[in-house]
UniProtKB/TrEMBL annotation:
<dbReference type="GO" id="GO:0070006">
    <property type="term" value="F:metalloaminopeptidase activity"/>
</dbReference>
<keyword id="KW-0378">Hydrolase</keyword>
<dbReference type="InterPro" id="IPR043472">
    <property type="entry name" value="Macro_dom-like"/>
</dbReference>
<dbReference type="InterPro" id="IPR023042">
    <property type="entry name" value="Peptidase_M17_leu_NH2_pept"/>
</dbReference>
<dbReference type="Pfam" id="PF02789">
    <property type="entry name" value="Peptidase_M17_N"/>
</dbReference>
<dbReference type="GO" id="GO:0006508">
    <property type="term" value="P:proteolysis"/>
</dbReference>
<dbReference type="InterPro" id="IPR011356">
    <property type="entry name" value="Leucine_aapep/pepB"/>
</dbReference>
<dbReference type="GO" id="GO:0005737">
    <property type="term" value="C:cytoplasm"/>
</dbReference>
<comment type="similarity">
    <text>Belongs to the peptidase M17 family.</text>
</comment>
<dbReference type="Pfam" id="PF00883">
    <property type="entry name" value="Peptidase_M17"/>
</dbReference>
<dbReference type="GO" id="GO:0030145">
    <property type="term" value="F:manganese ion binding"/>
</dbReference>
<feature type="domain" description="Cytosol aminopeptidase">
    <location>
        <begin position="378"/>
        <end position="385"/>
    </location>
</feature>
<dbReference type="InterPro" id="IPR008283">
    <property type="entry name" value="Peptidase_M17_N"/>
</dbReference>
<dbReference type="InterPro" id="IPR000819">
    <property type="entry name" value="Peptidase_M17_C"/>
</dbReference>
<comment type="subunit">
    <text>Homohexamer (dimer of homotrimers).</text>
</comment>
<keyword id="KW-0645">Protease</keyword>
<keyword id="KW-0031">Aminopeptidase</keyword>
Length: 526
């Protein structure tokens, strides 16, 4: 059925992945001795200050400027380059071993992973624009950094470079391949720890790229069945640590997943697939069991509560599986890193939310696998219906902690804007773990309250609960709904990633969530 649906909807098949294959190497080499296309230097505002004679006070910038006969200082003055965040200055040069030199602003200070990831993305844009195949990376203030911080900083910049350079062109008729092949890290040290952190960035960025490709794929390509197929490919590629189970409707009925089945059983030509991927370490005992649950709606029409009007964003609803993409992107990275002592269950109820004469109607009542009944007062709040059964299933696997990721509510975007995810948890320890992981990864998460009094808005006159409350506090009531399906002995966090999963300006996926999840898993590993 899924194959027939795909063939009749455009005859499109994706081309090969354009995932970057960049080699990162840390070298003990003077910048002026480096031979290649682009030297990229990260600078703070104070690094570009000049003395009375117009010379840079910063030793590295002074050295570069002298080699260029004063051109760097002259150009920075003419173009009013002051090192502010997101500013850049790129010059074509001659007489040196490299073709271009670029200064990239970090603002007044540079201390967060997010700033260094952003620096990498800015450098990538310049490398792409100049068609650079090789790049040298340096920081004007490397002498001010501790030796312990340098590998992590290099890793964050490397992650930003891969994120920035990646161009998902699988659906273009004349795709251009990525030219950047090598990045040499200069002045930040070298050795086993640096090599390990650069390799870490390679693995995580590979997971981010995979997550982006999943979200970018249109619904006529990435049906629930095709989604399950992609996960099976990962399980096969890393079969030393990953295994997968795919449940179809008959098994869902056996498991009494009535909430999930209500969304998908009768309303679409592309049947649902319940995906359970499991990571087990290659050796040693399992000390901790974790669950990662992702919303996997491959297209959300809204159902009978159809998304209509200019602000409905129905044309972007292929992104409604962004939570699922994040956990499987993390799974790919984790399978490369192979953390010891931790078992991880990645669970996704994949399906479409479509309209049909036999589909779910407003006022229908569904029964979840934990026995609780739900009056569906809005068919466009389908993600939480699917997650209800997925959360209950994951709790029964014996996990100690669960994070679910979902593009759950527009209310969270209204509250936090497009770049910040909302975090909900009743557990202080888990809140600290995840927020710290997000800070280390450069992703933005803000904790919002679990206001229990709002549960009064979610009570039904004829069932145990309704699936949406009033307009106010919608992100909170969505989280309170999910909490009804989590066991009391399991630490749980809900991440509403409706905003940051998608770059509206470029109309592409961001890969949000992958980096934070990997950091969190590694912190929980022995």
């Amino acid at each position: 059925m899924a194959d027939i649906a795909r063939v009749t909807l455009g005859l499109t098949r994706p081309g090969p992945s354009n995932a970057p294959k960049i080699i990162f190497v840390a070298k003990d080499l003077d910048v002026l001795e480096w031979n290649g296309d682009l030297v990229a230097v990260g600078v703070r505002e104070k690094d570009v200050e000049k003395d009375e004679a117009g010379h840079f006070k910063n030793p590295l910038l002074y050295q570069l400027n002298e080699a260029l006969g004063g051109l760097l200082a002259e150009a920075s003055s003419e173009e009013d380059f002051s090192g502010k965040s997101a500013q850049s200055l790129v010059l074509r040069v001659s007489g040196l071993r490299f073709k271009r030199v670029g200064l990239f602003g970090l603002g007044q200070s540079a201390s967060s992973a997010a700033a260094f990831v952003g620096l990498g993305e800015a450098i990538a844009a310049a490398a792409q624009a100049s068609r650079a195949a090789s790049l040298a990376l340096s920081l004007a203030f490397s002498e001010d950094l501790s030796a312990e911080s340098k590998p992590g900083i290099a890793s964050a910049i490397a992650l930003g470079i891969v994120n920035g350079i990646f161009d998902d062109n699988r659906y273009k008729s004349n795709p251009k391949m990525t030219l950047l092949q090598s990045v040499d890290v200069l002045g930040l040290g070298f050795g086993p720890n640096m090599e390990k952190k650069l390799k870490y960035a390679e693995y995580v960025s590979s997971g981010v790229v995979f997550g982006k490709e999943l979200v970018n794929s249109p619904a006529n390509i990435l049906t629930p069945g095709e989604f399950a197929g992609e996960v099976l490919k990962i399980a096969e590629e890393y079969n030393d640590v990953l295994s997968a189970k795919i449940f179809k409707e008959d098994r869902m009925i056996e498991l009494k997943m009535g909430s999930y089945l209500g969304v998908t059983a009768a309303a679409t030509a592309n049947p649902a697939h319940f995906i359970h991927l499991c990571y087990k370490p290659p050796c040693g005992p399992v000390l901790t069991k974790l669950g990662l649950v992702g919303k996997g709606i491959t297209f959300d029409s809204g159902g009978y509560n159809l998304k209509t009007g200019p602000n409905s964003n129905i044309e972007t609803m292929k992104k409604d599986m962004g939570g699922a993409a994040a956990i499987f992107g993390a799974a790919k990275a984790i399978a490369e890193l192979k953390p010891p002592g931790v078992e991880i269950h990645f669970v996704v109820p994949a399906c479409e939310n479509m309209i049909s004469a036999t589909g779910m109607r407003p006022s229908d009542i569904v029964t979840a696998s934990n026995g609780k009944t739900i009056e569906v007062n809005n068919t466009d709040a389908e993600g939480r219906l699917c997650l209800a059964d997925a959360l209950f299933y994951t709790c029964n696997l014996g996990v100690e902690k669960i994070i679910d990721l979902a593009t759950l509510t527009g209310a969270c975007i209204m509250a936090l804007g497009p770049s910040v995810a909302g975090a909900f948890t009743p557990n202080e320890e888990l809140a600290k773990e995840v927020i710290d992981a997000a800070e280390r990864s450069g992703e933005k998460i803000w904790r919002l309250p679990m206001e229990e009094s709002y549960w009064e808005f979610m009570k039904s006159g004829v069932a145990d609960m309704i699936n949406t409350g009033p307009g106010q506090g919608g992100a909170i009531t969505g989280a309170l709904f999910l909490k009804q399906f989590v066991a009391d002995n399991v630490q749980w966090m809900h991440l509403d990633i409706a905003g940051p999963v998608w770059n509206a300006r470029k109309s592409i996926a961001t890969g949000f969530g992958v980096s934070t999840l990997v950091e969190w898993v590694l912190k929980n590993a022995s």
